[in-house]
Structures are given as structure tokens and as C-alpha cells.
Amino acid sequence: MNFAIIGATGNVGRKTIEILEKSKIQISKLYLVASEKSKGQKIKFKEKEIKIESLNSYDFSKAEITFFAAGGKIAEEWVPKASKKTIVIDNSKIFRMDKDVPLIVPEVNSDKLSMFKNKNIIANPNCSTIQMVVALKPLHDNFNIKRVVVSTYQSVSGAGKVPMDELISQSKDYLAGKKINSKNFTKQIAFNLIPHIDEFEEEGYTREEWKMISETKKILDSKINLTATCVRVPVMVSHAESLNIEFDKSFDVKQIRNILDKAEGCKVLDDRKNGGYITPIEAENKNFTFISRIRKDNTKNNALNMWVVSDNLLKGAALNTVQIAERLIKDFYGK
Ligand SMILES: NC(=O)c1ccc[n+]([C@@H]2O[C@H](COP(=O)([O-])OP(=O)(O)OC[C@H]3O[C@@H](n4cnc5c(N)ncnc54)[C@H](OP(=O)(O)O)[C@@H]3O)[C@@H](O)[C@H]2O)c1
User: Fold this and answer.
1) Among residues 257, 259, 248, which one has the least CA distance to residue 295?
2) Phi and psi at residue 230, in whole multiples of 5°?
3) With a 6 A CB cut-off, is 318 part of the ligand 1 pocket?
4) Is there a catalytic annotation at residue 230?
5) pTM of the entire structure?
6) Best substitution site from 12, 95, 167, 184 to test ligand 1's pocket, by max atoms within 8 Å of Cβ?
7) Is 140 a catalytic residue?
8) Tens-digit pLDDT profile for residues 172-228
9) Residue whose C-alpha is closest to residue 68's, from 48, 92, 93
10) Which ligand 1 atom is nearest residue 75's CA?
């Protein structure tokens, strides 16, 4: 089959190329597309150089499956047109809550994948939601989750490649004693953190927080009550999350560890000693959702605390979209 990546030069696009290179998917041709400014640049894929095409002149009928990783505005304008000619797997927030579009994390709800036939579009969830539901799903299956309180510690790569450069430049300016001007953040990010991701919406929550709430309900279970606080931290790659989970049923921590240890996509790293836990830097470039600091919350019945970390550009974006494509090909194209 032929594949295309729209936004191939960005953080998620480049990671998608890397993951496709390692994937077992048989790729006849890969088309790489970005803005006019990147046209003609070359990116290596399987020892061959592929020339970047401009979105304005790209013909969507050339690929059977097209990954969109170019942001919400581009998705809003181009995905409806593209999906008439190709199956779209979209990284943006635009189609996630469309009731006719499946929102897929393969380990969690691949049974909903067939819904792609409605509009030829599959939505990739928000990066913070993906790693959280990968860890919650096996626990929900066993103990039935009633409520989740999540606080996130999200890396700057979640905002794109330009904000990553700004973290470096702000850090250099700070160390040189220079005045810091924030361009891509609402406040200084270097040696600081910002309790605000995406726009403010109703009731004082940000859109990122609402995304975690509504996407979890769509992917995992509409009955789960979830509340979120999303924070941008001066970390380059990988998002971390502190989760407080209340179950219907009683559990013991040993059971939780065993279940998570065996769960698809999860890896437990929980030694209860100095360094016996995962940090964002260690999760970078790894495909797993890592879980540490598993412990009972003794202030409530059937409640648990844990720490969940994953590479937001991999499981949070590129890896999940490629896994969706792999599943799609296996289930619907018999390959
Ligand atoms: N980063 C994450 O953790 C993450 C996780 C989940 C989902 N997502 C979503 O994935 C998408 C991409 O995010 P990102 O972090 O990879 O962004 P990014 O690093 O800023 O890359 C943006 C990409 O879009 C392309 N682009 C921009 N304007 C364009 C235009 N007018 N026409 C064609 N291409 C254009 C850019 O091409 P040029 O280089 O030519 O400008 C670049 O390839 C976003 O929707 C984001 O919300 C990101």
C-alpha cells in the first residue's frame, strides 16, 4: 500500500517516518508533504531520499492511508477533502469528538475501528489521554474505575518543534542573565512551569483538561468521572502524570502490579527505593507506557496513586497512529 504523511517535517511527522521504517507494514510508496517552505527538501526513508511535496499541490489519491500531523487548522481545512480519496489518521483535536469518527488507542478500543467507514477518518487522541488510558484500561477491566484525579507534567515537545527551540534559547538567556521574552508560552518556561495548556474554556478549565475528560469517556467508559490539571514543564520529551484512581472493587497493590505488568503496552518500574521509578528522560524514544510509584491511597476506600510516563511523540502520537494503521490493515485489508 502507499502511505502519505502531511506535516512530515514536524515533531510528530518525523517520528512517524521513524516508526514506519521499523514497522512490518509493507510500504510500496511513501509521500512526504509539508508547507511550501519545505518543498524540495529531502528526508531519508529506508535508505532512499524522499522529496517533500507542498500540500497545496499534493494529490491525495496517491496513498491509501494518509497520516495528518500538521495541526488543527490544516486538518480542519484539508482532512474533509483528503478523506474523499484516502483513509485519514489525524493527530489533531478537530475530529476527536465527532460521533461518526472513531477515537482509537489500539490496546484499549480497537473494536471501534470499523467506524472509520463512516467518514474515512480515524482520530488519534490527545497525547496525555493516550498514555493514561493505556494504564487505566486493564485496571478498569478488573476493578471498575469510578473516579480519576489526574495532574499532568507535560513536555514542551507536546507544543511542537518551535517551542522546543524556545526552551533552549530561554534557558541560555536565563543562564546568561539576559531578559526573557516568551514567544510560544504565556510565561517564562525555562526554570519554571506553567499551569495552562491550550485555551481557557468553561468553568476555569483549559481545553487540554476538557480533552482528557471527554476523550477518556469516549475511549474507555462514559461513566468514569475524571478531573484534570494540565501543566507544561521545562522537559523536552515525555509527559508524566500523577493519577489518583478510585475503584468500585477492592484490590491489593500486588494484584495491580501483576495486572499492569502483563498489560499490552505497559511496563512497571517500581522499586520503592532511590531511583526506582521512571522519569521523562528515561522514557524518551521508548514505546512503553511506564508505571511507577504504585501505592494505596489510605484516605479513601479502594483508591490508588500511581505515576505514569510515556514519550508523547511516540505512544502519544506517531506510534499510536502507526499501530492504528497496522490494525486497520490487518482487520480490513487482510494483510
Ligand atoms: N507533539 C505532540 O506531543 C503531539 C501529540 C499528539 C498530537 N499532536 C498533534 O500533531 C500535530 C502536529 O504536531 P507537531 O508537534 O508535530 O507540530 P510541529 O512540530 O509544529 O510540525 C508541524 C508540521 O505541520 C507542517 N505545516 C505547518 N503549516 C503547514 C501548511 N500551511 N501546509 C502544510 N504543512 C504545514 C509543518 O511543515 P513545515 O516544516 O514545512 O512548516 C510541520 O511539518 C498537531 O495537530 C498536534 O496537536 C502532537
Assistant:
1) 257
2) -110, 130
3) no
4) no
5) 0.96
6) 12
7) no
8) 999 999 999 999 999 999 999 999 999 999 999 999 999 999 999 999 999 999 999
9) 92
10) 45
